[in-house]
Design brief:
Cathepsin D, subunit A, domain 1; two-stranded antiparallel sheet; 9 strands
């Protein structure tokens, strides 16, 4: 696992509003997360609940929705956890896979990769 910071923007479904966040890239996190108030302002609705193990080893259920996100000049729909107040936004492994990005920890950047269809 490794972490560094990267900007990610969340965009409303109609494309009229966007919020850019300074997020932590965390290869150990399954999903990305953003503050619930940001997602709600953009009209993202919770679709389901997921069980997640937190860094302190606690297991919690959290709300999960799907949001338009912009990362390294590309836009995709990603699953996103509704974060709690004070929690840092995260870019997790699922988002990296959806955007076909890998982590270069030495240069602390995201790099494009080919998808696999084997």
């Amino acid at each position: 696992m490794g972490t560094f910071r990267q900007n990610i923007a969340f965009v409303s479904a109609d494309g009229q509003r966007r919020e850019e966040l300074d997020a932590q890239v965390d290869t150990g996190a399954t999903f990305s997360s953003a503050p619930a108030d940001v997602l709600e302002r953009l009209g993202v609705r919770p679709e389901t609940r997921v069980r997640l193990r937190l860094a302190n080893n606690a297991v919690e259920e959290r709300l999960l929705g799907f949001a338009r996100a912009e990362l390294v000049e590309e836009e995709r729909i990603i699953p996103v956890v509704f974060g709690r107040t004070g929690e840092p936004p995260l870019i997790g492994a699922t988002t990296l896979e959806i955007f076909l990005l890998a982590v270069d920890l030495v240069e602390q950047r995201l790099v494009p990769v080919e998808g696999l269809l084997l």
